[in-house]
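sanity check this chain:
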Amino acid sequence: MRPEVAVRESAELGEGPTWDPAAGRLIWVDILGSRVHTYEPGSGRRTVLATEQHVGAAKPRKDGGLIVNLRDGIGTYSPDGAFAWLHREPVAGRRGNDAAVAPDGSLWAGSMAYDETPGGGNLIRVAPDGAVTTVLDDVTVSNGTGWSPDGTRMYYVDTTTDRIDVFDMDGERAVNRRELASIEKGAGHPDGLTVDAEGCVWVALWDGGALRRYTPSGALDRVVPLPVRRPTACAFGGPDLRDLYVSTARVGLVRPAPLAGSLLVFPGIGEGLPQPAFG
């Protein structure tokens, strides 16, 4: 199965596709381009929002607008475009990276050092009222985060470990961390992920040119080749959540593939889970 091109783009570091059901649109970012993109598959309409800092992720808010994981912390955009800081914590040489909204409406936002210093990042939980709790404080490249259909498990990727880990959820806490699956040498490195309606984990393989699907027991269930070397994340979207969108990057490539930096889509490849908005 080959993907279609949803949005032909030359993003340096495309990341974090997220379906916004209220608006019928797909949200994704170009981290190093400091851009938040939206795409409405029904009409083909696109928008681009320029941010003042590198933006690791953008997610819909319950009352409209966006919540964004920026270089110096977490900010919000109102529906009319007004920006405000929700949690500002600048650290020299560090920026926000991937993020996800949990079933309870909280944002779990990761960070990393620009030079990928080991332990230079973290993972925080931002409650709807803005209260911040540190989930993990010894992370190198915080990436994919997602929850099982019943909300009892959380899946997580610190890319440099070459693993997908799983936690049990104990209220607002993630506990009992263990390995779900490891990526063998030469197959690429795990990046962003999403969980489908069957509870399986789809992960993008940076420098692996593929997506993988793992069962809840950690068994490799499917490999989907891609026409780009650096896919970064995937998410189900569309009115019935059956289309799998894939963000891609061209950063660091001497001869990037023609579609590197574009947003790709596999129509009807599976069935995703409704994703909550922040708040």
The first strand starts at residue 4 and ends at 7. The mean pLDDT is 97.
